[in-house]
Write a structure and sequence with these properties.
heterodimer; A: alpha+beta; five-stranded antiparallel sheet; 29% strand; B: Aspartate Aminotransferase, domain 2; 11 helices; globular
Chain lengths: 84, 367
């Protein structure tokens, strides 16, 4: 289940992040970020499994793919900001 | 038609290019403007081309920005550094894409000149001109008039030593000579997609190693509540709808180029250039050539005005370009003002038999 989201202002960074994660064996989906996690309007998110979150963040940082935030989808459909 | 005007635009492209343009026209919507399948296809198409270009030029994908042409890219690069009154060092071979932009910005233009094909003298002249108060240095990689290759790596090193930003116009070299922004220590490298890169017209690239100032302002499909242009590349300089069919075609062209042997392409072009040069010299035609030259050759027929000569070539089915080639500064440096020259320019698809046809017509025109 894809319940962890890394957000990006630019689709290019989302695409680059998706490719970097895939190269490291982490499955994810690139999508338009839900409004709740895109306070600046119009953003993109990589959705992946929560268990890949910490490793995924490390991989993105190492590749210089700047995420604007990490979010966990809650059972009620809302989002909680994570400090990864 | 024998097409020898490839410095203006390459006319013959790999067939994959038009296939990709058609496919994108049919299937791609506006990238970054939604989450539906047609916009995702457009995003993936644009990203594929961006990634191919990044690999080709040794950069990260986000450092590759799409523009409408090299002129747009140069406008962005120069406007990033230049304020009215700034001293700008440039080669004496620059195109109006550089000189008009600098004039429009109110810069003080300091053209560097040297014998056309003497790389050491060019380097010395740049070294003398690059004073600490220079706002930026701009230099082409290869001349669109004379084919001269300038030592941009060494000029970039001089600029780096003196903390002067360096901008390179790779309009005539991209696709033929190695373009290495990092090795050249260039802040920006500008190029069209439709010449040596073999893409469609209406495409250009700005390779960024520094943060550019936007030329256009508007929607980017990102951070829409913020009324300032995004800080992130490439969005910062890509306001408005991208030319997705053109970018798709450029991607197909880059993929095709990647399958070629670049050294073989250059060797072949130089062999054809030498063939044309020998033929013209045998007939006593005035030519401009030297050791470091791409497949661009200026010449003059002694008995005809340049424009008249180009018209007669065109009537004989040969496409060349005459006049100043939008580069009066280059003609001043080369001593070919006010009438300019006739220019022959090659591409990877030019064949020797076409040059034989060109030489046969030249022989007739000289009578």
């Amino acid at each position: 289940m894809y319940d962890l989201f890394f957000t990006f202002r630019s689709v290019t960074y989302g695409q680059k992040g998706r490719d970097v994660l895939a190269q490291n064996g982490i499955r994810c989906r690139l999508l338009r970020a839900p409004r709740e996690i895109a306070p600046g309007g119009c953003a993109y998110a990589l959705a992946l499994s929560e268990r890949d979150g910490t490793r995924g963040r490390t991989i993105l940082d190492r590749a210089g793919v700047r995420s604007t935030g990490s979010w966990l989808r809650l059972p009620d459909g809302g989002f909680s900001r994570l400090d990864l | 038609m024998i097409y020898l005007d490839n410095a203006a635009t390459t006319l013959r492209k790999p067939p994959q290019v038009s296939d990709a343009v058609r496919k994108a026209l049919r299937s791609c919507a506006n990238p970054g403007r939604g989450g539906h399948a047609a916009t995702v296809r457009a995003e993936e198409c644009v990203y594929r081309t961006r990634t191919l270009a990044a690999e080709c030029f040794g950069l990260e994908p986000e450092q590759v920005c799409f523009t409408g042409n090299a002129t747009d890219a140069l406008n962005i690069a120069l406007r990033t550094f230049v304020k009215p009154g700034d001293r700008v060092v440039l080669s004496g071979l620059e195109h109006n894409a550089v000189t008009r932009t600098l004039t429009g910005l109110g810069a003080e233009l300091v053209p560097v000149t040297a014998p056309l094909f003497d790389a050491d003298r060019w380097l010395e002249a740049f070294s003398d001109a690059l004073t600490p108060d220079s706002a930026v240095c701009v230099c082409l990689h290869a001349s669109n008039v004379f084919g001269t290759i300038l030592p941009v790596r060494q000029i970039g090193a001089l600029c780096a030593e003196r903390s002067i930003p360096f901008v390179v116009d790779a309009s005539q070299s991209a696709g033929l000579l190695p373009v290495r922004p990092a090795e050249w220590k260039a802040a920006f490298v500008a190029m069209p997609g439709h010449k040596g890169l073999m893409g469609p017209q209406g495409t250009g690239l700005l390779l960024c190693r520094e943060q550019p100032e936007p030329l256009r302002f508007g929607g980017t499909g990102s951070s829409s509540l913020d009324q300032n242009m995004p800080a992130e590349l490439p969005d910062r300089v890509e306001a408005g709808t991208l030319n997705v069919p053109g970018i798709a075609g450029l991607g197909a062209a880059l993929a095709w180029l990647r399958q070629q042997n670049p050294e073989e392409l250059l060797r072949r072009e130089r062999m054809l250039l030498a063939f044309a040069l020998r033929g013209l010299r045998t007939m006593g035609v005035q030519t401009w050539s030297g050791p470091d030259q791409i497949g661009v050759l200026s010449f003059r027929l002694n008995n005809l005005d340049n424009e008249e000569a180009a018209t007669r070539y065109a009537n004989a089915g040969i496409a060349l370009r005459a006049g100043l080639h939008c580069a009066p500064l280059a003609h001043r440096t080369g001593g070919t003002l006010p009438n300019g020259t006739v220019r022959l320019s090659l591409s990877v698809f030019t064949e020797q038999k076409e040059l034989e046809g060109f030489l046969a017509v030249t022989k007739r025109l000289l009578k």
